[in-house]
Design brief:
mainly alpha
Length: 432
């Protein structure tokens, strides 16, 4: 496991920091190697297909089989994650397409358990380095592919759509920025992060996805306040947060008075129509579906299925010839159609908890891992209102939401040890 340097006790029991290394150092323990190839399989899933999923499963199953007790403890602590995956799985019992819900429900359960196994076996800094490396590889392959849309309206790379490219390269940009800002990282890691962030930004622009670019921009804007809050004492920090919430609420009230004018300007600048490419019509249809089955939904991933009359009609209306890769463009609404308000409530509690824990961790700990997961969760929080951002099987973002929950909670549980003995402080630093 890659950890922060151990704390050393002096006369005042101060914690000393080791100078950063000079190269691309990472402790390639068996756990880290297995986690790397497992996450690489997910990252390159658009290119490798089934082989990528099998690589993720193989690595994950090795981690589970070689450390079942640790995985069981992690699953027991994050029991609501298991409950969410179980609800999606058992939805096959009332699903319109039981085979589809059963298959994808099993895959989601495996994804969640493997994500917990990875987090339990490697440290957060190791995970961040793995994410940087794997997404840098995906970025290089995308740039080298030369694959663009036939109509010239966006670059695709190794991905099936410009949005998928933009979301993945936005992740590369954010992880690169977080590593670049971590002074404990070696110059080689920070140089790779700089190149990776530049590559990610370039491919995002080439992808021409307005929503992804806007979400990343707002996420980056959150870095400054997070770094500022780190320098404040707890009482001052709380006061600043409360005042910020009040100011944001006041700004929100003011913006609503000119919302129509702002929306018109934004849509004219981006070439979108006033319904955000048909989203309002989609939302109306989805809400009607939810009203018919409010608590349980139609079954996990059992709406956008070939043969479903309403799905076929919507694909035809919106010109989706591939009959795939389409959704209701709102996480809560889209997921409520499939797993009902019950399932959505569980997912929302998990997601908001992950956002809170990640932000809290980033404010208290100076590390690439805490900053990356915090800004990533901010990005997902922004995108959830216009895209579907959680929870999917065989998806790197599902793994990272689990990581935000697991590492954020681990740091929170260990934080009181900062006032304890030096050995306890060392355990906290390993989570920083």
């Amino acid at each position: 496991m890659l950890t922060s340097p151990p704390a050393r006790a002096s006369g005042s029991r101060a914690v000393r920091r080791r100078a950063p290394g000079r190269g691309l150092t990472i402790r390639w323990t068996p756990d880290v190697v297995i986690a790397f190839f497992s996450i690489l399989g997910l990252t390159l899933l658009p290119l490798l297909g089934t082989e990528g999923a099998l690589l993720f499963l193989l690595g994950g199953m090795i981690l589970i089989v070689t450390g079942p007790d640790g995985v069981f403890r992690a699953a027991r602590r994050e029991w609501l994650l298991i409950a969410m995956a179980t609800w999606c799985l058992v939805s096959f019992a009332w699903s319109h397409y039981p085979g589809v819900s059963l298959r994808y429900g099993i895959q989601l359960m495996l994804t969640v358990v493997i994500a917990l196994a990875i987090c339990q076996r490697i440290g957060p800094q190791a995970l961040v380095k793995i994410v940087l490396l794997t997404h840098f590889i995906a970025g290089v392959l995308s740039l080298a592919s030369g694959n663009a849309r036939g109509d010239g309206m966006g670059y695709l790379g190794i991905y099936g759509s410009k949005n998928a490219l933009a979301f993945a390269m936005g992740l590369l940009f954010l992880v690169g920025l977080a590593v670049l800002l971590d002074r404990r990282m070696s110059w080689a890691w920070r140089l790779l992060a700089l190149v990776g962030a530049g590559l990610g930004a370039t491919l995002m622009v080439m992808g021409n996805s307005t929503g992804a670019l806007a979400a990343v921009a707002v996420s980056v804007a959150a870095v400054g306040p997070l770094l500022l809050l780190r320098r404040m004492q707890a009482p001052t920090r709380l006061l600043v947060i409360v005042l910020s919430i009040v100011l944001l609420a006041a700004a929100g009230v003011m913006i609503t008075t000119i919302l129509d004018e702002l929306a018109a300007e934004f849509l004219n600048a981006t070439g979108k129509d006033m319904t955000l490419t048909g989203r309002t019509e989609l939302w109306g249809i989805a809400l009607a579906e939810i009203m018919e089955r409010p608590l349980r939904g139609v079954g996990f991933q059992a709406f956008w299925v070939h043969g479903n009359p309403l799905a076929e009609e919507l694909w035809a209306i919106f010109g989706i010839e591939a009959r795939s890769g389409f959704n209701f463009h709102n996480t809560l609404i889209s997921n409520a159609v499939e797993i009902g308000l019950t399932g959505v409530a569980i997912q929302a509690v998990l997601f908001i908890t992950a956002v809170y824990l990640a932000l809290s961790w980033a404010v208290q700990a100076r590390s690439a891992a805490s900053l990356f997961l915090a800004v990533l969760m901010v990005r997902q929080l922004i995108l959830m209102w216009v895209e579907v951002v959680y929870f999917f099987q065989f998806d790197i973002l599902t793994v990272l939401v689990v990581a935000a929950l697991y590492y954020g909670r681990s740091f929170r549980l260990a934080a009181p040890s900062l006032q304890a003995a030096p050995s306890a402080r060392t355990r906290v630093l390993r989570l920083a």
